[in-house]
Amino acid sequence: MEEKGNNLKQAVLWEQAGDKKVQCYLCSHRCLIGQGKTGRCRVRKNIDGILYTLTYNKLCSANPDPIEKKPLFHFQPGTSSFSIATEGCNFQCDFCQNWQISQAAVEQGEIDGQAISPEQIVKAAVNYGCKSIAYTYTEPTIFMELCADCGKLAKQNGLANVFVSNGYQTVEAIDFSKDWLDGINIDLKAFNEDYYKRLCKAHLQPVLDTIEYIAKQTDIWLEVTTLIVPNENDSEDELKRLAEFLVTKAGADVPWHISRFHPQYKYLDSIPTPLESLQRAYEIGKAAGLHYVYLGNVPGSRTESTYCYKCDRLLIERLGYGTKKNDIKDGCCPDCGVRIAGFEI
Ligand code: SF4
After folding, report:
1. CA of 29 to the centre of ligand 1 (A)
2. 14, 30, 32, 40: which to mutate for ligand 1, most atoms within 8 A of CB?
3. Nearest C-alpha to atom 2 of ligand 1 is from which residue?
């Protein structure tokens, strides 16, 4: 991997821990990293007692995407978001759909990408007519330095910023980003610790803490996604507890996206999620009191559009990632007048 002489950028959110060790507190792994070693994400390295990011100059993806693809359904609906990533992740999910880039440092022991400056990224976003920059595809927390530099510049150019995240950032990392981060979709992958430990090499509680902290202590717009994996996180009891957690700790206005699983990466001995399981999860979310529940990866379903939670009027009609119409007026339902929560909705 690249060393200090190659213009590495010093990392944010770490401290010296004696003996040339450093403690990173960007994410909840809070790695204690010895001299010459990397953290669990493999993209932050201790060189002579200083922590560096190995990905700042290594962009691996950059595309304009519909904001609905993140998914964010209550955030500037119908707009494009310039979506960027660098390689690496602080999770190692067996079913990762972007494992070629998220697990590159683990699988190949190297990090690829192009040196593209924040100025070039923001300029490209403006040229494509995007309304935001999305830090996505891999875990944005671990390329926070690039996110921060892009994010501040994006704000100066009238663009918003969104994360698509596993929710493992520390409170310190959330506070570090909250002045320029406008929206976030957090994967709440399951509501059981065994799932997080066995399939993601992480823990559940930090993700719950992030969701609650963002909902209660920041102005960042929050949506949550759960991938339903057959026989892993789809029991009625677990989904009920998950939905109740969202209502009580994040609020009924937080949109919950229920997503369909397809076998990926190391997790191949499973069927795709049956449609009945998705529908059951949808009903559990609505019964818990969530105002907005959506089914993902099921094109053509009624459940990909937005309806008024009070009078059931169709408000935003979607087909796949496309928005066919948006009837919301000044943030409210045009029929009953109830407020529809969101960011520039
Ligand atoms: S970002 Fe997380 S996984 Fe990476 S070094 Fe820091 S604490 Fe460890």
Report:
1. 6
2. 40
3. 27
Tokens at 216, concatenated: 């209660």
Query: Per residue in 245-255, is it b (16+ CB within 10 Å) or e — as a string?
Result: bbbeebeebbb
Tokens 């989904």 -> residue = 239
Asked whether the CA dihedral 292, 295, 299, 303 is positive or negative, the reply is negative
Query: Quick one: tokens of 207?
Result: 């993700």
Q: What is the pLDDT of residue 266?
A: 84
- Mean pLDDT over residues 262-289, rounded? 92
Query: Tokens 């950028």, residue?
Result: 9
- Least Cα distance to 151 among 173, 175, 135 occurs for 135
> Which tokens hold the place of 234?
């789809």
CA of 28 to the centre of ligand 1 (A): 7
pTM of the model: 0.96
Give the confidence band of 255 by pLDDT, cuts at 50, 70, 90.
very high
Ligand 1, atom 7: closest residue by C-alpha: 30
